[in-house]
Design a protein that fits this description.
- It contains 9 helices and 9 strands.
- The protein is an alpha/beta fold and 264 residues long.
- A 7-stranded mixed beta sheet has the order 3-2-1-4-5-9-6, sandwiched between helices. A two-stranded antiparallel ribbon has the order 7-8.
- The chain is globular.
- The termini are far apart.
Amino acid sequence: MTYKQEVIDFYNARTNYDNDATFNRAITLFDYATPFPGQSVLDVATGTGNIAIEAAKKVGTSGSVIGIDIATELLKIAQQKIQAENLSNIELIEVDAQIYEPESNQFDAIYCSYALVLFPNIPTILGNWYRFLKSSGFIAFTCSSEDSYSALSIVEACTKHGITLPNLHEPLGTPERIQYLLTQAKFNQIEIHSRQLGTYLCLEKAQSRWNGQFWLHIDNPLRELKPEKISRIKASYDDKIAALETEEGVWHEELIYYVVARKV
């Protein structure tokens, strides 16, 4: 199975994706960057359309929104929601964001909620977005710290067994790395706002957050391992998480960066 198909299958299976938490953490981007009436917006990896729908309401009938995604099932849900809202200024396109080629200088705003880390070549994607934007346009995206979702514990458990697992969140895992990548892509007026959504979990629940086999990274070596090896790595992960337990439980980091950058 190709990496692209793995991503498609993973998200097509998430037809229960919508809930208050996923909705709120997505549209929080509008707290930092909001389009104006009449503007054109691109929502990359639109999923069930939460950002696209909110953007469509903000730009009004004189504006337009395009939402792109590769997950057919999520786009079906998005279309149902658009019809329920009776919105006529949104177009959904099933396409890989890595090959999507609109006209240059087409959009006033580009949004991407939590999906930027999934692209194998982030600098190329950012360069494309810069080209797609009009002068004075902005991009707004979310990403997670490198230790969010027990990422470092998962990576360290793999290392103990001689397996090098790339940290999915590493490329955008610190404000310094975000700043560097955006500067290299020629963006200006970069803002990085952090929000801590983490919480304490009971030990059993914290250990259940193991997701190494479903690590959506193009170079995930766990795909090729036998179940016995995976079980040994998971046991090491469980031990590591148990060592982090306190009276309050196990801290589960979810530090989110809300990022805005402009083309000046």
